[in-house]
Structure formats: structure tokens, C-alpha cells
Amino acid sequence: MKTHGSCSCGDVTFEVDGEPLAQLYCHCRSCQTAHAAPLVAAALFPASSVSYRGEVKRVRVTQREDAPHRLTCPSCGTKVLNEPFPTVRCVLVPLCATRDWFKPTMHVEWRDRLVEVADGLPRYRDYPKELGGTGELA
Length: 138
Fold this sequence. Notes:
- The chain has one helix at 29-35; strands spanning 2-6, 13-17, 22-26, 40-46, 50-53, 57-59, 69-72, 79-85, 88-92, 106-108.
- The chain has a single domain (2-131), classed as glutathione-dependent formaldehyde- activating enzyme (gfa) (Alpha-Beta Complex).
- The chain is 5% helix and 35% strand.
- The chain is mostly beta strands.
């Protein structure tokens, strides 16, 4: 699968060439704070599948120890990519030029949810075990 996207002003672009490890909705406090939204549509990819061009600033938007670094455009402030784990990159689906490939299979960080979602997808308290979480369902 291939897709690409950019920040709001276009100074930072990214490309993805590979299959997602997971496609999900994230409800973590860090995503809520970074995007001023109750949840974020995201896809996790091996870091080797994702590249970007342009100057970025690495930030953490909350003081939580488990908050991921976010690659942010210094010009417009858009959070372009997340680094939740050393070998994984989180692509924010709304920034992608095409989104028809996005087929979410779960909700993660349900413990931090602000809204109820009735879509029948599994709701993980944190993350599934294969993604480094406890695997506990909410």
C-alpha cells in the first residue's frame, strides 16, 4: 500500500510504502490534547515504511511518561506523525491524500475516552498485547 500526505501548509510531507501493522481509533489523552479532538483515526506502520521531508520539531504534548513524540511542522503547528514506539510510526489518517484504504479494527486507550462509540469494534483499555499493551478489553 502507498499513500502520502502533508501538514496544513505543505512544508512537511510524508510517504508510506508498506502494509499497516494496525488501523485504529486512538482515545489517549495525548491525542486528545494534540489534536483538540476526542479521538484520532490512525494507522501504525513499521518505521522503515514511513519517510518524511521537511523540518520537524519533536514534541510531547502531555507529561505522561507513555506519551509519544510527535513530529510537528514548525511553520503551521500540524502534528504530522507520531512515534509511539521506536520501530513504529503512527500515520494520522486525516492528513493522507487518500483514505479509502483505512479500515479500522479497534479502539485503543479506551480508558481515556471522552465519547462513546457504538461501532462494534473491540475497545482496548490500552493496547492489544501484540502492540505492547495489556490486551485488556474495556
